[in-house]
Specification:
The protein is mostly beta strands. The chain has one domain. It has two helices and nine strands. The chain starts with a helix and ends in an 8-residue tail after the last strand.
Length: about 140
């Protein structure tokens, strides 16, 4: 019996270990999704509407991890992930700009210059521009 339990545990372990996925909700209909699975790192910034299927992808790029919590696009835009000591809650109901993780977007070059004016403005809270609050999430329950 112990062998069966060990075998099942060993076989199911990859399914139980999930990549870290983060959701930074900047307003009622917009999210920044950061996927940090090794070798599959990427960022997606979306804007949705009240109508189902009404979704616009503002930005999407694969990322490379350059240091602990720092992810860089191929063209040099930087997404810096920081774990906060305590969560900051600006909207307890919809979780807008709330959470225990902080994402700061920065960079230089043509890609960042094009992206910066498109970056969403946070609806609630007093975070500086290009700084977003969010949580580690199970994005299979959400729609990126």
């Amino acid at each position: 019996m112990k062998i069966i339990v060990l075998a099942l545990t060993f076989l199911l372990m990859p399914l139980l270990l999930r990549a870290e996925e983060y959701d930074f909700r900047y307003d009622r209909y917009g999210d920044i999704y950061l996927y940090t699975d090794k070798g599959k790192e990427r960022v997606v910034i979306v804007r949705t509407g009240k109508t189902p299927g009404d979704q616009e992808t503002i930005f999407e790029s694969r990322l490379t991890r350059s240091d602990a919590g720092i992810y860089v696009t191929p063209q040099g835009t930087i997404f810096r992930l920081k774990q906060l000591k305590e969560p900051i809650i600006n909207d307890e109901n919809r979780h807008i700009n709330s959470g225990d993780c902080q994402l700061t977007v920065s960079g230089r070059g043509a890609e960042f210059t094009r992206l910066k004016p498109k970056m969403p403005v946070v609806e609630l809270g007093d975070t500086p521009p290009l700084v977003y609050l969010g949580v580690k999430a199970n994005l299979k329950l959400l729609h990126p």
